[in-house]
C-alpha cells in the first residue's frame, strides 16, 4: 500500500497536525507493497512579513508614484480609503502605481494591501494641492540665437513658472530651479554668477522668473530643468534643446548696439562742409570665449585700439576719420564671429557766408602838402572803418620818405616825413589812402635835394 504526498495549506496545519499525533500514538505502521519506505508530507517554507516600500509618500494630482510589495503570499489586492482622492490602484506582479486626483487641501488617504492569506499592511499617502501649473515657458532672450531651433550654446533664456491653487495665484512663493541634466546654468540676479540651483519668489502674478544661460561650449543636446514648490514639494520637469553653434550670433554681443554717428564740425566763415575727424566710441564685448580679436575692414576710416580684448566685458576704442559707414569684426577664441553696430561719419554744416563789407566813409584833410628837408606834415582822416596807405610814386629811395602809421582806424591822423639826409627824391610823391572801396590820393611836394 502506498500513501501519496499531499500539500496541506498553512490554515489546515493545526487540524492535520493533531491527526498525525493521534496516528503516531496508536503505533500505526504504514507500509507499501514490496516493503518500500514511508512517504510523509513536507513542511512548507515560512511566510515573511508583508510590507510596502515606501510606506508613506506625499503625492500630487496626475503625478504617478510607484510602490513595491515584498513578503506575504500573492496574489495581492488593493483598496483605498478615499477613492475620490486616490482611486484604488491596479497591481502588476509586486508593483503598483498611484495617480492622485486634484484636491483643494492636504488630504490623508490610506492604501491597504492584502495578501492571499489575509495578511494586511498599509501605505499612508498625503495628497497635496497642485501648486505649479503645467505651463513652464522657456523663451530665448537677447542674445537670442535665432535659427538654432532651440537655445544656442552660449545663449540666454527666460524661464517662467506660475504658482496657482484653485485658480488663485500664489504670490511671494519660493520656487527652486535646478539643473537636472544638461550644460546650462542659472544666472543670479544682480551678480550674473552662474549656479546650478536658484530660489526665486513669485511676483504679484504668481510667476517665478529665472534667467538661464547655456554653456558656450555645450554640444547639441536635450537638457532638463526642474522647478520645485519649496512649500508643497511639488516638482515639475521641463525639457528643452541646446543647439551647438559656431556662429557668434546669440553668443557674442557688443555694446553699444545702435549706430554711432559723428558729424563734421562747422568750419570757418566761407569754408565748405567738412567730414568729422577724431570721433571715438568705446565698444564692450560680452559672451563667447575670450580673448577677442577685433579687425577694422576700413582702417583708413576706423582705427581700433587695442585690437585684442582679453576679458569678457572688456572694451576697445574705435576712432573714425572721414565720412562713410563701417562695422568692426569681432572673433572669439572659438572662431565665433560677429559684427559690431555701425559707426558713421557725416558731413557737417558749411561755414557761414562771408559778410558783405560795410561801405566806409573817408575824408582826408589836407590832400596836398609841401615838405622841406626834415619836415613832417599831418593830414586828418575822418569817416569810419579802417585804412591802409601805399606810396604809389616810383623811384623813392628807401628811408627818404615815410608814412606813419601805414594803416589804422578812422577817424585818425596820418603823418608824412621827408628825410633830409637822402638825396635823389622825386619832387612829387603820391600816397593813396584806401578805406574799403574809397581811395583818396595825397600829394606831397618835396625839394629835389637837401643842402
Task: Give structural notes.
The chain has 451 residues and is mainly beta. It folds into 5 domains: 1-44, no CATH class; 51-128, Immunoglobulin-like, CATH 2.60.40; 136-243, Immunoglobulin-like (Sandwich); 260-346, Sandwich (Immunoglobulin-like); 362-445, Immunoglobulin-like (Sandwich), CATH 2.60.40.10. Helices cover 3% and strands 46% of the residues. It has 1 helix and 39 strands. It has one helix spanning 13-26; strands spanning 51-53, 56-60, 65-70, 77-80, 91-92, 95-98, 107-114, 120-128, 132-141, 151-152, 156-165, 168-169, 174-181, 184-187, 194-195, 197-201, 207-214, 221-229, 235-243, 253-255, 260-263, 277-286, 292-295, 302-305, 308-309, 315-321, 324-326, 329-331, 337-339, 343-346, 362-365, 368-370, 376-383, 386-391, 401-404, 407-409, 412-418, 428-435, 438-445. Strands 9, 11, 12, 14, 15 and 17 form a 6-stranded antiparallel β-sheet that branches. The protein has a 5-stranded mixed β-sheet with strand order 10-19-18-13-16, with no helix packed on it. β28 (329-331) and β29 (337-339) form a beta hairpin. The longest helix is centred in the first third of the chain and has 14 residues, at 13-26. The protein is rod-shaped, with a radius of gyration of 54 Å. Mean pLDDT is 83; it is low at 1-36.
Amino acid at each position: 500500500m502506498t500513501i501519496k504526498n499531499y500539500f496541506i495549506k498553512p490554515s489546515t496545519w493545526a487540524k492535520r497536525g493533531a491527526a498525525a499525533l493521534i496516528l503516531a500514538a496508536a503505533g500505526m505502521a504504514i507500509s507499501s507493497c514490496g516493503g518500500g519506505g514511508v512517504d510523509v508530507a513536507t513542511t512548507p517554507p515560512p511566510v515573511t512579513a508583508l510590507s510596502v516600500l515606501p510606506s508613506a509618500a506625499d503625492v500630487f494630482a496626475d503625478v504617478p508614484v510607484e510602490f513595491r510589495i515584498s513578503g506575504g503570499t500573492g496574489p495581492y489586492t488593493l483598496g483605498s480609503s478615499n477613492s475620490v482622492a486616490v482611486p484604488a490602484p491596479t497591481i502588476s506582479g509586486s508593483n503598483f502605481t498611484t495617480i492622485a486626483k486634484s484636491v483643494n487641501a492636504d488630504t490623508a488617504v490610506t492604501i491597504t494591501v492584502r495578501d492571499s492569506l489575509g495578511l494586511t499592511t498599509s501605505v499612508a499617502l498625503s495628497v497635496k494641492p497642485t501648486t505649479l501649473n503645467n505651463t513652464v515657458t522657456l523663451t530665448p532672450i537677447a542674445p537670442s540665437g535665432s535659427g538654432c531651433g532651440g537655445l544656442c550654446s552660449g545663449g540666454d533664456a527666460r524661464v517662467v513658472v506660475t504658482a496657482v491653487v484653485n485658480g488663485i495665484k500664489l504670490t511671494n512663493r519660493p520656487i527652486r530651479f535646478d539643473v537636472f541634466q544638461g550644460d546650462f546654468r542659472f544666472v543670479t540676479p544682480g551678480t550674473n554668477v552662474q549656479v546650478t540651483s536658484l530660489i526665486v519668489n513669485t511676483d504679484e502674478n504668481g510667476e517665478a522668473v529665472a534667467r538661464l544661460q547655456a554653456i558656450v561650449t555645450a554640444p547639441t543636446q536635450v537638457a532638463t530643468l526642474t522647478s520645485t514648490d519649496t512649500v508643497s514639494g511639488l516638482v515639475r520637469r521641463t525639457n528643452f534643446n541646446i543647439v551647438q553653434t559656431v556662429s557668434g550670433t546669440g553668443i557674442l554681443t557688443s555694446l553699444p548696439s545702435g549706430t554711432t554717428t559723428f558729424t563734421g564740425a562747422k568750419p570757418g566763415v566761407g569754408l565748405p562742409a567738412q567730414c568729422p575727424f577724431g570721433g571715438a566710441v568705446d565698444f564692450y564685448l560680452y559672451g563667447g570665449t575670450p580673448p577677442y580679436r577685433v579687425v577694422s575692414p576700413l582702417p583708413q576710416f576706423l582705427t581700433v585700439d587695442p585690437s585684442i580684448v582679453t576679458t569678457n566685458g572688456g572694451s576697445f576704442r574705435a576712432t573714425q576719420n572721414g565720412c562713410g559707414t563701417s562695422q568692426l569684426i569681432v572673433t572669439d577664441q572659438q572662431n565665433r564671429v560677429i559684427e559690431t553696430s555701425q559707426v558713421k561719419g557725416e558731413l557737417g554744416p558749411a561755414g557761414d557766408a562771408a559778410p558783405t563789407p560795410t561801405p566806409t566813409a573817408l575824408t582826408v584833410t589836407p590832400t596836398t602838402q609841401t615838405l622841406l628837408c626834415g619836415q613832417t606834415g599831418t593830414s586828418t582822416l575822418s569817416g569810419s572803418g579802417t585804412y591802409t596807405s601805399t606810396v604809389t610814386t616810383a623811384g623813392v629811395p628807401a628811408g627818404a620818405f615815410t608814412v606813419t602809421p601805414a594803416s589804422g582806424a578812422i577817424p585818425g591822423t596820418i603823418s608824412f616825413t621827408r628825410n633830409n639826409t637822402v638825396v635823389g627824391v622825386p619832387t612829387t610823391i603820391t600816397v593813396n589812402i584806401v578805406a574799403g572801396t574809397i581811395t583818396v590820393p595825397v600829394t606831397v611836394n618835396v625839394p629835389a635835394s637837401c643842402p
